[in-house]
């Protein structure tokens, strides 16, 4: 499909630069099949779901993966993208023309890394020096990797270390937050439990590739970056049991949905999973595991806009987004949310 089919005009003032407080005070646009759109709030979620439904959260934790350093006199920026092993990460590099294989980058705080290998997409493998855990080094030298549409408008600060982390975060490894879950609070979870809505967590370490624009003119020519995901055997068993009992699996965020679909077999049975996934969901895809999605509003011509269009239909999503813009919903990572039930 032509990428331009997923384009729309977004007023810049609708890009949220900070989340609302409290988190669960965000707005929620509800779209069910062809039914009329509903302007609700995130706190209304329990009443919008049925007892026995199951929310699927991503428990990945965002690490301070944005680094600024020097190779000699040259300024080098690095955004860690994907862990290779205990000491090596694949990273997108700013000012990569000044970096060669074998060069050492000094990031400050006694943190150094060697540019071991340049990849075809322009990224590098960085090998971090020393014996100290890389995660500890990043806490000292790194910044939270806010999306470009926020970082380009203001500086990252200490508030982001809390704001850009979900209440479920426990598995270090993401360089972008599963932002749909940013809206959840203990009181919302308590209300969902009282309603009889279940929840499970899985892990998908979101990479910086999620922010990359689709440069191809046709979706067939776009290559997705791989991300590591894991669903434990016991978790898969409970997910399948919930569906067999008549409950719906509602993915909280596109990352949870992508991992569910990666782990489901041809019959829709979710299997244990521990591998990379580069699944690219576009209109025409047959969903096997997810029955609905709670997600924030996405960038035009992005792979995530294509995903929600696959779930709901492209024309339907264009109507949803036109309504969100007209009603002044807040967009992107720190913005409002939507509940999409095909």
UniProtKB/TrEMBL annotation:
Keywords: Cytoplasm, Glycosyltransferase, Isomerase, Queuosine biosynthesis, S-adenosyl-L-methionine, Transferase. One of its GO terms (biological process) is tRNA queuosine(34) biosynthetic process. It is found in: Cytoplasm. Pathway: tRNA modification; tRNA-queuosine biosynthesis. The keyword Acetylation does not apply. InterPro entries: QueA, QueA_dom1, QueA_dom2, QueA_sf. Pfam families: Queuosine_synth (PF02547). The keyword Oxidoreductase does not apply. GO terms for cellular component: cytoplasm. Its main location: cytoplasm. It catalyses: 7-aminomethyl-7-carbaguanosine(34) in tRNA + S-adenosyl-L-methionine = epoxyqueuosine(34) in tRNA + adenine + L-methionine + 2 H(+). It is an enzyme of class 2 (transferase). One of its GO terms (molecular function) is S-adenosylmethionine:tRNA ribosyltransferase-isomerase activity. SUPFAM superfamilies: QueA-like. Its EC number is 2.4.99.17. Transfers and isomerizes the ribose moiety from AdoMet to the 7-aminomethyl group of 7-deazaguanine (preQ1-tRNA) to give epoxyqueuosine (oQ-tRNA). Belongs to the QueA family. Monomer. This is S-adenosylmethionine:tRNA ribosyltransferase-isomerase. It comes from Aurantiacibacter aquimixticola. The gene is queA.
């Amino acid at each position: 499909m032509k990428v331009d089919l997923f384009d729309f005009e977004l007023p810049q003032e609708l890009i949220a630069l900070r989340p609302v407080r409290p988190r669960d005070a965000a707005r929620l646009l509800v779209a069910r099949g062809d039914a009329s759109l509903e302007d609700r709030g995130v706190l209304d979620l329990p009443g919008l779901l049925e007892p026995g439904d199951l929310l699927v959260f991503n428990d990945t934790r965002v690490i301070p993966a944005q680094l600024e350093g020097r190779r000699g006199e040259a300024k080098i920026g690095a955004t860690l993208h994907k862990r290779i092993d205990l000491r090596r990460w694949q990273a997108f590099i700013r000012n990569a023309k000044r970096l060669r294989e074998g060069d050492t980058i000094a990031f400050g705080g006694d943190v150094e890394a060697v540019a071991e290998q340049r990849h075809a997409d322009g990224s590098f493998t960085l090998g971090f020096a020393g014996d100290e855990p890389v995660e500890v080094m990043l806490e000292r030298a790194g910044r939270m990797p806010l999306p470009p549409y926020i970082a380009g408008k203001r500086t990252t600060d200490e508030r982001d270390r809390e704001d850009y982390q979900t209440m479920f975060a426990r598995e270090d490894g993401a360089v972008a937050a599963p932002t749909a879950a940013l809206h959840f609070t203990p009181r919302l979870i308590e209300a969902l439990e009282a309603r009889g809505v279940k929840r499970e967590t899985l892990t998908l370490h979101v990479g910086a590739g999620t922010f990359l624009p689709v440069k191809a003119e046709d979706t067939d020519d776009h290559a997705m970056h791989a991300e590591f995901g894991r669903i434990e055997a016991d978790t898969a068993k409970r997910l399948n049991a919930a569906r067999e009992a008549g409950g719906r699996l509602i993915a909280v965020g596109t990352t949870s949905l992508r991992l569910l679909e990666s782990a489901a077999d041809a019959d829709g049975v979710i299997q244990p999973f521990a591998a990379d996934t580069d699944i690219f969901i576009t209109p025409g895809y047959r969903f096997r595991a997810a029955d609905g999605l709670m997600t924030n509003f996405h960038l035009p011509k992005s792979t995530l806009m294509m995903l929600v269009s696959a779930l709901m239909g492209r024309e339907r999503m264009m109507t949803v987004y036109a309504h969100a813009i007209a009603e002044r919903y807040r967009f992107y990572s720190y913005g409002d949310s939507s509940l999409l039930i095909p």
